[in-house]
Specification:
Helix content is about 10%, strand content about 25%. This is Translation initiation factor beta propellor-like domain-containing protein.
Length: about 325
């Protein structure tokens, strides 16, 4: 007991300012003796990391900020920074504000689409169609050679409103407009608005405009005078053939490689009707005179159904009509 009393009764060396161990500590009678609580440990607080001033600068607002400077060599440049830098250095022109494929490329060596350079006798014959049993007619010996396409020609079409103009579409991705009887230059326009072979081209009833379609899965309406694409109609198949409805010039029909037949509204640019049947590639289509029916011919090399060769369709009901008699007539012809 004496050893324990001596141990616990001794004063610690760390108790600064207390009485020496030889003197007793006075305690009030009846008061409880206790040691003061140790000081609390300071709470750890999260300090967010602040980048140094020389860190990557944030791109300024594009409306008022000058172009970004070129990044320093050796520093990593993110894709976003590279895109912003390229956009700030790229020249801005009016064509970039327009949707893609809004301007056809016109060859610089083009002639005129007017009839001012035609021979007088041909011009008179074209403007004044001779009456039945009239002795006036086109010259009996008249020929012209039109050269310009570099590959096979797929289609030709005379203008119904300008009798001196002819258009052609070729495998060389171009559409040519010919001023056939012009004495100076018969090549009026060379349009290069398609990216693949052009399979068909038709004169639009809406002024001097052409509608063409091809293997780039698009139909494009071109203003011949201005040489600009005014509308683009996207397809999911290579376009093989086009026809305008004779009773409604705002509607045209397209047929393609996958066998789809679609009736388009040229004003809104949307498909108004589709004609479904398991067909091969559409080779040709033709409307009836009143535009209420049309006939289509297809390639049957991928099908064993021979009656799908030629079909007469009802435009309003979007159904094929009976073609039994038509097939019999074709068999007799062949």
């Amino acid at each position: 007991m004496d050893l324990l009393s001596a141990a616990y009764g001794a004063t610690s060396d760390e108790d600064d300012g207390e009485l020496p161990s030889s003197l007793p500590v006075p305690v009030a009678p009846g008061a409880a003796s206790f040691a003061p609580p140790p000081p609390k440990r300071p709470r750890w607080e999260y300090q967010p990391y602040l980048p140094p001033p020389q860190s990557f600068p944030q791109p300024p607002p594009p409306a008022t900020a000058p172009p970004l400077a070129s990044p320093a060599s050796g520093r990593y440049v993110s894709k976003r920074e590279r895109a912003l830098l390229a956009a700030s250095q790229a020249p801005v022109d009016s064509a970039s504000l327009l949707p893609p494929q809004t301007t056809a490329v016109v060859d610089s060596s083009v002639g005129s689409v007017t009839d001012s350079n035609l021979r007088a006798d041909i011009l008179h014959s074209l403007r004044c169609q001779p009456k039945p049993r009239s002795s006036k007619s086109l010259p009996s010996k008249l020929s012209v050679s039109l050269k310009g396409h570099t590959k096979a020609i797929n289609c030709v079409d005379w203008s119904p409103t300008h009798a001196h103009l002819l258009t052609s579409a070729g495998m060389d991705h171009t559409v040519h407009v010919w001023n056939v009887w012009d004495k100076r230059n018969s090549t009026a326009r060379v349009l290069k608005h398609h990216t693949a072979a052009v399979k068909d081209v038709r004169w639009s009833p809406h002024g001097l405009s052409l509608l063409s379609g091809g293997l780039d899965c698009s139909l494009q309406l071109v203003d011949v005078v201005e040489g600009k694409v005014t509308k683009v109609f996207k397809e999911d198949q290579a376009v093989e053939v086009i026809k305008f409805n004779p009773s409604n010039p705002n509607l045209f029909l397209s047929g393609g490689y996958k066998g789809s037949l679609r009736l388009w509204d040229i004003r809104s640019g949307v498909v108004t009707k589709e004609f479904h049947r398991s067909l091969g590639t559409i080779l040709d289509i033709e409307f009836s005179a009143d535009g209420k029916q049309f006939i289509s011919s297809t390639d049957t090399t991928r099908s064993n159904i021979s009656e799908n060769t030629i079909i007469v369709w009802d435009v309003l009901r979007q159904v094929p009509l009976s073609n039994q008699g038509l097939n019999i007539g074709i068999q007799h012809i062949t």
